[in-house]
Design a protein that fits this description.
alpha/beta, 6-stranded antiparallel sheet, globular
Length: 381
């Protein structure tokens, strides 16, 4: 199957980890609808690790843990589908998942068939405990071909954390999206670290091969499985802006049943989501003066949108406010020199503030850990 835009949805891992069960999953599906998140495009409900019994059944198939999923997975899938949503599950290229449950190694076809029978629409496929004698690309091909022959359209979400130079071979495996980074946790430090390495991964992505910067921590507020220090609403906005602008899948990781208002506003900003879902999926590029630095704390990511607008994100990953000397964008660098007679009319997507670039340079003082995210229309000077 072909994915034309990055998938949007909710995943159980960040908040629930091993404490996953049918009630949480079905209530989260209800909340996706009732909160309006589904209407914004978040339509996948993904159960991550720890859903199975530790041993396979006598028929060689994986068995949902009856204490967590007493009615089995088809029941959960049917419920999710009845809401108009899609159902995602998790397995691993190794013999065990990262949390020690059965993985799909050497069981790829039977597992793909089982998932198809249950009504699975999305498979996240991890990389723990795989045999080192078999190359990663072969392990992902094994599951890709099994899914493609399972009789059901199942989106294939590879999760090899960028390891073993994933970017060089992932496109040949048929994965629709691929984790380009190691695991996120709910702290500014983690967001910052993943952001600093993001620029490289996006060069290897494209339609139907979306680099996945990991699930969102927006709204976790320090609670749950990967909850650490938590972040401020502004840091969560910066995180969301960057993931959206760079074209990452957006999988919500907080407990949406108890979302607070800033979380709602961040996750449901339709202008920001429109950039993430832009049909052209042109690659973002760093147009800042520091772009050639290996780790640029002041990137200015720019992306040409399908209707001719630009999306522009100016970021400050450092701990001090930026000055006009470290966050400025020259119109020349994005194809709009003075000779064109054109400039940009900007709308900042978090505040609604509008302004026009008048002198060929866009400068902004950005607070520490903050950002400005613009949609910019090309207009006469
Ligand atoms: C790995 C993945 C995470 C999560 C856990 C589950 O660490 O990268 O996203 O799926 O495994 O054990």
């Amino acid at each position: 199957m072909v994915a034309f835009t990055p998938p949007l949805g909710w995943n159980s891992w960040n908040t629930f980890g091993e404490d996953i069960n049918e009630t949480v999953v079905m209530e989260s599906a209800d909340t996706l609808i009732e909160s309006g998140l589904a209407a914004c495009g978040y339509n996948y409900i993904v159960i991550d690790d720890c859903w199975a019994l530790k041993e396979r059944g006598d028929d060689g198939r994986m068995v949902p843990d009856p204490a967590k999923f007493p009615h089995g997975m088809k029941y959960v899938a049917d419920y999710i589908h009845s809401k108009g949503l899609k159902f995602g599950m998790y397995s691993c290229a190794g013999a065990h998942t990262c949390a020690g449950y059965p993985g799909s190694f050497d069981h790829e076809f039977i597992d793909a068939k089982t998932f198809a029978e249950w009504g699975v629409d999305y498979l996240k496929y991890d990389y723990c405990f795989h045999p080192f004698t078999i190359a990663g690309n072969v392990l992902y091909k094994r599951m890709a071909v099994a899914l493609a022959n399972s009789g059901r359209d199942i989106l294939f979400s590879a999760c090899s954390w960028g390891a073993d130079e994933t970017k060089k071979w992932i496109k040949e495996t048929g994965a629709n999206l691929w984790r380009s980074t190691y695991d996120i946790n709910d702290s500014w430090r983690s967001i910052r670290e993943l952001s600093l390495v993001a620029g490289d991964a996006i060069k290897h992505g494209g339609i139907n091969c979306f680099p996945d910067m990991d699930m969102l921590v927006t709204g976790m507020n320090g609670m749950g499985n990967v909850g650490l220090a938590g972040c401020t609403p502004e840091e969560y906005r910066t995180h969301f802006s960057l993931w959206a602008l760079l074209g990452s899948p957006l999988m919500i990781g907080c407990d949406i049943r108890s979302m607070d208002e800033p979380t709602r506003e961040t996750l449901m900003n339709m202008d920001v989501l429109a950039i993430n879902q832009d049909p052209a999926y042109n690659q973002a590029f760093d147009a800042s003066a520091n772009a050639s630095k290996e780790e640029n704390e002041y990137p200015i990511y720019v992306r040409l949108l399908d209707n001719g607008d630009y999306a522009i994100g100016i970021f400050n990953f450092s701990d001090v406010a930026s000055s006009r000397w470290n966050t400025y964008l020259l119109m020349d660098t994005i194809g709009l020199p003075e000779t064109t007679g054109k400039t940009l009319l900007l709308k900042e997507l978090w505040t609604g503030e509008e302004r026009k670039v008048t002198n060929g340079i866009l400068t902004d003082a950005i607070p520490p850990h903050g950002c400005k995210l613009y949609r910019a229309q090309v207009v006469d000077r």
